[in-house]
Each structure stands twice: as structure tokens, then as C-alpha cells.
Amino acid sequence: MRGLQILIDGFAISSLYGIGALGFTLLFGVCGVLNLAHGGIILVAGLFGWWFASEYGIGPYGGAAIGILAGLIASYITYFLVVRPIQRSRAIPKSEEEIFVLTGTLLWGVMIQDGMDYLFSNNPVTMQPLLPGVINLFGVRTPRNELLIAGICWAVIGLLYLLVNHTRIGKQLLAAAINPRGLTLLGFQLSRIYLVVWTIYGLLAGLAGVLLASFFGVSSDNAGNLTASAFTIVILGGLGSVSGSLIAAYVVGYAETLTAYLLAPTLRPIPALLILILVLYIRPRGFLGRR
Amino acid sequence: MTLLRRPGPWIGLLLVLLAATAPGWLGAYYLGVLSTAYYFGVFAMSWDLLFGFAGEVNFGPTFMIGTGAYAAGLMNNAGFGIPLCIAGGAAAAVVGGLILALPALRLRGPYFGLVTLVAVLLLLDCIVIFAGVTGGEIGMMVPSILSVSAVTNYWYAFGFLAISAVILFGLSRSSLGLILQATGQDRIGAAALGFNVTKHKLAAFCISALFSGVAGAMITFYEGIASVDTVVSLALTVQIVIAVVFGGRRTIVGAIIGGIFLILFNELLRPLGQLNSLVVSGIALVVIIFFPDGALGWMFHSRDES
What we know:
The complex is a heterodimer. Chain A has one domain (2-160, 189-282): ABC transporter involved in vitamin B12 uptake, BtuC (Orthogonal Bundle). Helix content of chain A is 75%, strand content 3%. Chain A has eleven helices and two strands. Chain A has helices at residues 2-31, 38-55, 59-88, 97-120, 144-166, 168-178, 180-185, 190-215, 223-237, 242-262, 270-282, and strands at residues 134-137, 140-143. Chain A is globular. Chain A starts with a helix and ends in a 9-residue tail after the last helix. In chain A, 51% of the residues are buried. A two-stranded antiparallel ribbon of chain B has the order 1-2. Chain B is an all-alpha fold. Chain B has a domain at 27-234. The longest helix of chain B has 27 residues, at 197-223. Chain B is globular and about 50 Å long. The A-B interface holds A 34, 82, 85-86, 89, 91-92, 95-96, 98-100, 102-104, 106-108, 110-111, 114-115, 117-118, 224-225, 228, 231-232, 235, 239, 266-267, 269-270, 273, 276-277, 280-281, 284 and B 51, 55, 57, 59, 103, 106-107, 109-111, 113-115, 117-118, 121-122, 125, 128-129, 185, 234-235, 238, 241-242, 245, 274-275, 277-278, 281-282, 284-285, 288-293.
């Protein structure tokens, strides 16, 4: 019985982690940007979603829509005010651009966290479930919300797969990830493709934030940990590899759930960190990383 | 001789003179603020050695600082005297630095950055899990303190900063600093020139850890408590990053200026309350985008052009 419960809970948590890490890995794969403000953007979506849902009485779905919109706006601000100025600055040598993007987004993430702390305090808040009620699944009482969240996650993953592999814009994204120079020579505008990626990223991060708020709840204190989890999953799976990230999301999700159920909830974050260190020592490029 | 015609060294001398006479004309409260700022300056300098010179994206300076601080605190609670505790803290921090250096030999850029971040998170988790010994999130009280007098404490901090600055600045201008820069920019090139990259990198980590650890231990005995907020938290890492970027990377001296400026600035913005850190991070972000070489770099650049 307990085994089944771990299986179901772990599945839902892992799907959520997958969605949380997907945008992050896409952004790195196509644009080469490691966005350390990731946790902050998730936070913005979750908190605004919760706030609109509870204060303005537009219900969980209206709140979720607002939250995703907030995530998208936060993503655009990150791109236009932080990342692009750094990439275009002539004072920053190309060889140090990566370090500057890391530092810049780190600071931006701190600013978001402080801003959210100021607006909403750091009390954890939970959005009302998208789907109330509990059902009995093979003898395990499971919230219907949990199943819905896992379903939404997999639907979105499927959509993204279709978009990347079967549409014209998706093929451009792939090409930009593999050889940006070649794509430019073919007459495609790289900046337009980057904008598309940041849009997808914003939607994914926004969705992750809203689902997180409805599943676990969010607090402005979480920003750093959210970034760290996404970073961990993405590195475990291999930077830039979408399927690798999904596998890693399940490894981390189940490792955490197992620890929480079998050892103690306080030890929850530790196994993922240990797995990460181990993998980095043995296979630094992660499960499915290229290069 | 051209050096004497530049304003830089004279401004520096003036600042050192002001700092050395501060106990004569400053109140106890501001001496306390400055003491904290000096320890913080050492954190920033140690980090600059790794980030600016060796080019390591080290998000874990607080791993070394925290290891030093908590090791010293634990020894003090076990009944050892302050000097021995500081030495013990320094030794623990160097071991911590070596643990961090091992992945640095294999991993580059973001991969290494993540490992250091994870190291800090693990240390935080350990402190919380072993709360019985470490005091958890509240912090660990230590029985001894450096001194009750603000003036004496100021001299300890100032002396420590001065000694660290001279040693670290000297090292950064020595062949070690040059080789580290070369390694940071082109690892294979540096190795091809016959430099032992591994050895120099390990040395940089040990030196950085040594100063971080001693500073962590001293700030513990200055404040009488080792707490997550003052020596381990990620917020401290961010502040160190801001200080170094603000003052100017790869200068060591810039790190001190940035560090002291940041602490004074925090003090100035205290009325803003919660928004304080938001404003400081925002200013640092603007500095990164528009003046990526920081205050010192900007001063020198503008002079070179004129």
C-alpha cells in the first residue's frame, strides 16, 4: 500500500519537476543561457496566481491564467533588461559573457525574491486546488488535483514534443541549438528565434509556478531552492537535453519521495544532492548530455 | 614616478589614513559597522582570487567561510582557547577548500558553479539536521569573544584586513596570479607553456579557503555567535559577488572597496527595510551591465583613454 502511494506521489512530483526543468534546459540548449533567476520567475507566477485567485475571486483557473501571464512577463523582463544587455554589451568580452549572465541573473533572481517578499511576505501560500476532491486509486486515497497536475504536465510535454519536432518554428529552434551561425546564413533571424524560446520558457516556468502553488504551495523563501532543483535536474540529465532532463526529474522526484516516506521528511533534499555529486564525478556531462 | 602623479595611490593612502585614525573620531556603533565591513572585505578578496584570477565560477565561498566559523565555534565550545580555535577553523576551511577544488579540476563553468552551490546547500542541511550540536537555524553561541571594547575589536579587524590585503595583493601580482589568470582564460594554453595547472589551482583554492576560514572564525568570535545568516547563507554569497563586481574584478583592492562600500550602503539604506537588498542588487545589476569592470576598472579605463 505504502509502495503504491510512493509510486503515485512520486509520479506527480516528478512530472512537476519535469515541467519546472524543461524551460530551463530549453533556454540553455537553444540560447546558451543559464538563467539563475529561474526560481524567481516560478515564484512570480505562483504568487500572482494565488493572489488573483484568492483576492479577486476569479477561481483557480482564472488565477492560473494570470499566473502564467505573470511568468511570461517576468521572462520577457529577464531577457530584455538583464540577459540581452549583457550579451550586447561591448565592454564585456565574449569569453566572459557566460560568467556575466550567471552573475546578472543571480542578482536579478535575488531582486525578484526580495520584491515578492515585500509584496506578499514570505509566508507560504497555497492556491486552491484546480480540481477538488479525493479519489480512491487501487486503495490509495489520492487527491484528484494531484492526478490532474500530472496529466497537465504530460500534456504540455507532449505538445512541446510536437512543436519542436513537427513544426517549422520547432525545426528552427533545433537548428539554432545545433548551429546558430548556419541558421543565420540561411537568412533566419536569430533574435526572433530567441524571442520565441523566451516566450516558451516564460509559459513553461509560469505553468510550473502555478501548478507548484496549487500542489505544494509557494513562499518567497523558495526561490533559491527552486533554482537549485531545476539546475540539479538539468545538469543530471545533461545540459540542453530535454529527454535527459525528464529522466533526471523522475530520478530526483522518486529519490526525494522515497526519502521523505521511508527515512524522514527533513532529509528530503539530501539524496538528490548526493546523486548529483556522484554523477558529476563519474559522468560530468550527465545522463544524456552531448559534447 | 608616474605612479605618484596619478590620483589613485594618493586616494588610497588617504583612505588608509582615515581608517587607521577612525577610532579617534568615530563612535562605537560605526566602529562596529566598519569592523564587520573589514571581515566582509576579506571574504570578498578571497573570492576575487578564485573568481577574478582563476576564473572559477565559485558560488560556494560560504562553504569555506562557514566551515571555518563552525569548526572554530565547535572547538571553542569544547574548551580550546581563541587562537587555537582560529587555527583549527583555518585548517578545517582549507580541507573544505580542497574538497571544493577536487571537482574544479574536472569540471568547468556552470557545472562547477552548481557543485559549489550544492556544497553550500549540503552544509546548510547538515547544520539544520545536527541542530543539537550546531544550534541549527538559531546559531551556535561561543563562550569566548575577542574583546568587549569596540576599539580593540576595530583594531583586530583592521589589522587582519591589512595583513590579508598585503598578502593577497602580493600573491595576485606574483607569478601565481599571472599563471592563474592564464589558466582561467586558456587552460590548455597555460598547460602547454609548461605550468602545472593542477598545482596552481589547488594553491589558489587553499589560499582562498585559508583567508575565508580565518575571517569566518574571527567574525564568529567578534559577534559571539556562529549563525547561518552571517557565515553560510546564500544571501552572503550574493553579497560577496556584488562587492567584487562592484569594486572591480581581478583587482583584490577593488574587492575591499566594494565590500566596505556595500556594508556602509546597507547601513545607509536601513530605513528602506525589506527593500534594502532589492535596491542594492539592482544597483549591482546596473553596474554589471554598464560598467562590467567595476569602480576601479572604470577609473583606470577612463584615465587610459584620456
